[in-house]
Amino acid sequence: MADLEAVLADVSYLMAMEKSKSTPAARASKKIILPDPSVKSVMNKHLTKMGEIKFDKIFGQKLGFLLFKEYCEQICDESVPQLKFYEETCNPVKHHFVLKSHSDGREIG
Q1: SS3 category, 44
Q2: Which contiguous run of DSSP H or E holds residue 7?
Q3: Which of 16, 48, 50, 66 has the greatest number of CB atoms lying within 10 Å of its CB?
Q4: Predicted pLDDT of residue 72
Q5: What is the distance, to the nearest Å, from the Cα of residue 41 to the centroid of all Cα atoms in its chain?
Q6: All residues at 6 or more sequence positions from 53 whose CB lies less than 8 Å from its CB, including other chains
Q7: What is the pLDDT of residues 2-25, one digit of tens each?
């Protein structure tokens, strides 16, 4: 008799598991609304908040320079002859280097 009760308990457990798989959970049906995840909107909000949404602030950084260069080469309809000058003089990517140790920084600085 105990074996029969154990089998019935197992069957009812398995049936409950099958039923729960076919119906979605109640908490999963609630959708969370997230803000716009685009990098442009996030960076625009951050730079506006910090008061650094100026050309020279953005252009002086590696990513800003690379985006400006890509814009001039691919998107802009007119040629930008100053781009070569900017690459030679103001390019933060060209002037970026990695120090191997703290003593190297003291010698350079």
Answers
A1: helix
A2: helix 2-22
A3: 66
A4: 82
A5: 12
A6: 44, 47
A7: 777 887 788 888 888 777 766 665
DSSP-derived secondary structure for 46-63: HHHHHT--SHHHHHTSHH
Count how many residues are written for the chain.
109
Residue the block writes with tokens 């890509």: 70
What pLDDT, on a 0 to 100 scale, did the predictor assign at position 69?
83
Q: What is the pLDDT averaged over residues 32-56?
A: 78
* DSSP letter assigned to residue 31: P
Closest CA to 91 of 99, 82, 100, 80: 82
Q: In terms of Cα–Cα distance, which of 83, 82, 90, 38 is closest to 59?
A: 90
| 45 contact partners, CB below 8 Å, separation of at least 6 | none
* 20 half-sphere exposure, CB direction, 13 A CA radius: 9
DSSP 33: P
